[in-house]
Amino acid sequence: MSTLLELSGVSVSFDGFKAINNLSFQIGEPEMRAIIGPNGAGKTTFMDIITGKTRPDEGRVLWGEKGVSLLSMSESQIAQAGIGRKFQKPTVFEAQTVRENLAMALKNKRGPFDVLFYRKSAEGAARIDAIAEEIGLTSDLARPAGELSHGQKQWLEIGMLLAQDPRLLLVDEPAAGMTPSEREHTTDLLKRAAQTRAVVVVEHDMEFVRRLDCKVTVLHEGSVLAEGRLDHVTQNKDVIDVYLGR
Amino acid sequence: MTFTATNARPAPRRSFIAQNPSVLWFLLALAVFTLGVTLLSEATGTGFLSTSFVKTLGKTLCLCLVAIAMDVVWGYCGILSLGHMAFFGIGGYAIGMWLMYARTEIIVTRSLMAAPIPPTEQEIVDSIGTQIFGVVGSSEFPLIWSFADSLFLQLLMVIAVPGLLALVFGWLAFRSRVTGVYLSILTQAMTLALSLYLFQNDSGLRGNNGLSGLQNIPGLEEMGQATLSIVFFWASALALGMGYVMFAWVVSGKMGSVIRGIRDNEARVRFLGYPVERFKLFVFTLTAVVAAIAGALYYPQAGIINPAEIAPIASIYLAVWVAIGGRGRLYGAAIGAAFVSLLSSWFTGGGAPDINLGFYRIQWTDWWLILLGLSFVAVTLFAPKGIGGLFDLLSHRHAPDRVGDYGPDKGALRAEEGSEPEEAK
Ligand SMILES: Nc1ncnc2c1ncn2[C@@H]1O[C@H](COP(=O)(O)OP(=O)(O)OP(=O)(O)O)[C@@H](O)[C@H]1O
Ligand SMILES: [Mg+2]
């Protein structure tokens, strides 16, 4: 397992409020990592920094074997480098069909002219069908994504993430709005993805995290409070104080 | 080897027309219309339609073309450009320069040849200069007229000048992520600056006189306006048909998917790895070039172009046409442009009878704009799909029938990712 992503000494503040405070973090490839922490701990902001949505005030974010800095790259370059993201609030293109949503995410060249002269291929269609099968939306492929329920949109976004075929998956609260059996399916899916890739999952549901059965990072007030196995961190006194005790 | 997924279907590859039946309908309607006008015109038909009306119809087709370009940039890509009529005007100026130069050259040469001593080349050029720039008290050819003697180069300018302007302007604007109303204001500023510049006498384009006599096509004097009007009508119809097919192709398929995605949520498109700025630049520049081509066909039919044509209000009208016709569907934009511009010339040309209310006489030449403004507001509020929305009644296109709830539910309580500080729960 080699290091894929490394954050060191990263800080960011919004109007003087430090949302991320001297945060350091590492993840290898392949690896599964869960991030937990109370509301406002900075979990989503952490993902914003990696994906280029938010620029940190200080610190380094290094990516890949060569250790290139993500800070000088645009959002689309970062995504193309192999970082995919599922948002906390599912964001799919509601006016377009499920198939179009998946097709847009499908790993292909991303330039305007590549897209303009893009021709549908049998492999592409097969891949979309396979993903649709996986996320249980096979019969909904022709429906506008706006018609889907909240849980189905979560699935669609997970499907889009898989279609991108990224090296690092950032998954923000995937289980929200899902039934228990769907949650189970999601954990299976993420665990399978983590056999070959790096996967970072933010989740509030402890049962879900337990099932992921991986190293856990606890965030609090923008920095790492504890790191280790779930049983280990849940016994940590600081963690109990700030998070579990409430 | 066994496949687990036995129901793996091949890629659904239907023809472009099968996927976009409206293209066929539009082309059919355009062909029927073109044929009808041809059969009723003075030159090639019964003469039921006057030459000037044929010109009006030809010009209307050009307006339809610029309207579908506007629809692609605004209705599909979400960039409310209020500057596309500036590109239209630049196209008109570019072709107008050749038309004026070449025609003046013919006239000047003819008159000088009658003189006892044959004129030198320089004398001819000087004389053309005096003829063209006399109205602004000059006779020198400005630098921008360098290519005016070549039809080919000037046609190239029709594409190159607006294309480059759109490219540079778009690059600066999109790169700094100017969006929404700020971008609209910026495009208006560009348009205003351009028209103010052209109004100046030393702009090199004859100030507020503009370029005139454009209806006389050098080399085609024999043809007569009646025939010319049909030639240009056909050219405009051809350009509209080709533009329609091209744009329909661009907005279908994956490109259409990406640019509609940009319209609805550009940040999300970025996180999928698409360089949004380059897509916007592509759409902005392509539509600017098409607008310029439409302008280059329009002004020889109009006969005159002056800086007032580029005034910011023209681009606002363009947006109004597209909104009334129906954004996000190409035929809607074309219908809107044709409907509103024809109605407008009917009202302002004195076609509509005044209404006498006894105490007040409604003169449509004054009141038409108010009527247009009110219709625009009404469409925006009550029929956002515009006139094109009527076709949904035919094709049974309907709003999504939603099952299940919208969410968000527990655990996804934010309205927007990472926005609005929220007190800890
Ligand atoms: N763009 C922003 N402007 C101002 N404050 C922000 C911004 N983004 C995040 N914050 C603040 O930073 C803190 C961390 O927010 P973040 O969304 O990262 O928390 P989180 O750990 O994802 O919480 P949750 O579990 O509720 O999703 C919060 O207090 C939030 O209000
Ligand atoms: Mg969050």
TrEMBL record, chain A:
Limits of the ABC transporter domain: 5-246
The protein, known as: Urea ABC transporter ATP-binding protein UrtD
Domain of life: Bacteria
Keyword entries, A-Z: ATP-binding, Nucleotide-binding, Transport
Organism: Thetidibacter halocola
Gene Ontology MF terms in the entry: ATP binding; ATP hydrolysis activity
Protein encoded by which gene: urtD
NCBIfam families per record: urea_trans_UrtD
Classification via Gene3D superfamilies: P-loop containing nucleotide triphosphate hydrolases (3.40.50.300)
GO CC annotation terms, alphabetical: plasma membrane
Pfam families: ABC_tran
SMART domains, per database record: AAA
Keyword tRNA-binding appears in the UniProt entry: no
InterPro entries reported in the protein's UniProt record: AAA+_ATPase (IPR003593), ABC_AA/LPS_Transport (IPR051120), ABC_transporter-like_ATP-bd (IPR003439), ABC_transptr_urea_ATP-bd_UrtD (IPR017781), P-loop_NTPase (IPR027417)
Automatic annotation (TrEMBL), chain B:
The keyword Zinc is assigned to this record: no
GO cellular component: plasma membrane
Keyword Metal-binding recorded: no
Residues that span the membrane, as ranges: 23-44, 56-76, 82-102, 151-174, 181-199, 230-251, 279-298, 304-323, 330-347, 367-387
Positions of the UniProt region annotated as Disordered: 404-425
A single GO molecular function term of this UniProt record: branched-chain amino acid transmembrane transporter activity
Membrane topology classification: Multi-pass membrane protein
InterPro entries the UniProt entry points to: ABC_transp_permease, LivM-like
Subcellular location: Cell membrane
Pfam families: BPD_transp_2 (PF02653)
Keywords of this entry: Cell membrane, Membrane, Transmembrane, Transmembrane helix
The protein, known as: Urea ABC transporter permease subunit UrtC
